[in-house]
Amino acid sequence: MSFLVIFSAILYAVSAAELPPVAVVKDIQEDFVKSPLSRITGGNEADPHSIPYQVALQLRSGSGSSAFCGGSLISDKFVVTAAHCVDGMTSATIFLGAHHLRVPETDRIQQSVNKSNFIIHEQWNSRQIRNDVALIKLAFPIQFNDNISAVNLPRRKDVTKSYVSEMATASGWGVFSDKKPSVSPVLRYINATVINQNQCRRSLGSTVQSTNICISGANGASTCSGDSGGPLVIYEADGSRTLVGITSFGSARGCEMNYAAAFVRVTSYLNWITSNAGIELR
C-alpha cells in the first residue's frame, strides 16, 4: 500500500479566525509514499452554492499543525467526513455555504468545535486505510436555506447497490493540478464513472475492499489533496442527490495520471452513520 496517498492537505498555520489561504501541500518525499494528500483535478468550478451540502474543514492538532478536508452535511446537526481527516486533531473550524475560500461571503456560516465533537469509526485502521469514516457534531443546529442543506443518504433498499457504470459527482477545494501544490480557492467538481472492484484494484491494489467505491480517474479527472472527506454523489431520477462515497485515497503517482480514486462506500456504513447521527433510515 506504499503507492497510495490519503487525500487531506497539510497547511501552513493560519489564524483560527480566518478561512484557510490557498494551502501548500506537504511535499511527497518519494514517488510511492503514503502521506496525506487529495484534490479535484480535471474538473470545473461549481456554480456558487450549487452543492449546498459541501462543507470545508480546517483542522488543527495539539502541536499546532493543521490540515484541510471536505465533508458533507447529512442533517442539521452532523457532518460526515473521513476518519483520517480528524484522527489526531483537537479542533475543527467548519465552513458551510462557502464557495470562494479567500473572499468574504455574507451568507457563509462558520462554526468551531473540539475533538469531543468527533466520532471516529471504532475500527479505523490508518495503516490499511480501513473504515475511514467519521462524524462531526455541529456546535449548534443549522437552519437550512438555499445555500446550505443536507444531502440524502442511501435508502435501506439500496444497501446492496454497486452503482457500477453510473455517473457520479465528486467535489472539493482540493489541489486542481499535479503541477500546482495548493488547494483551489473555489469549489470545484468532476463527473466520473463508477468502476468495479477489479478495475479499482488494478490501479490501487489490495487496499481496495468491498467497503470502497471507486471512480475511474479517466482523462485526469479525479480527487486529490484537500478533497479528503468530501462527497461523491449520484443524481437520482427526481433530481435529488444521494451520498454514495466519502473521499479517501488514491495513487501517489499523481491525480492526473488516469488512476482510479477510492472512496468510503456509504452503504457499507449506513447503519453506523445513521445510528451515531440519530438519523432514521429511509
TrEMBL record:
Pfam families: Trypsin
Biological processes, Gene Ontology terms: proteolysis
GO molecular function: serine-type endopeptidase activity
Keyword tags: Disulfide bond, Hydrolase, Protease, Serine protease, Signal, Zymogen
Annotated ranges, domain Peptidase S1: 40-278
Annotated Gene3D superfamilies: Trypsin-like serine proteases
Record carries keyword Plastid: no
SUPFAM superfamilies reported for this sequence: Trypsin-like serine proteases (SSF50494)
Annotated signal sequence range: 1-16
SMART domains linked to this entry: Tryp_SPc (SM00020)
InterPro entries: Peptidase_S1_PA, Peptidase_S1_PA_chymotrypsin, Peptidase_S1A, Trypsin_dom, TRYPSIN_HIS, TRYPSIN_SER
Name this polypeptide is given: Peptidase S1 domain-containing protein
The organism of origin for this protein: Hermetia illucens (Black soldier fly)
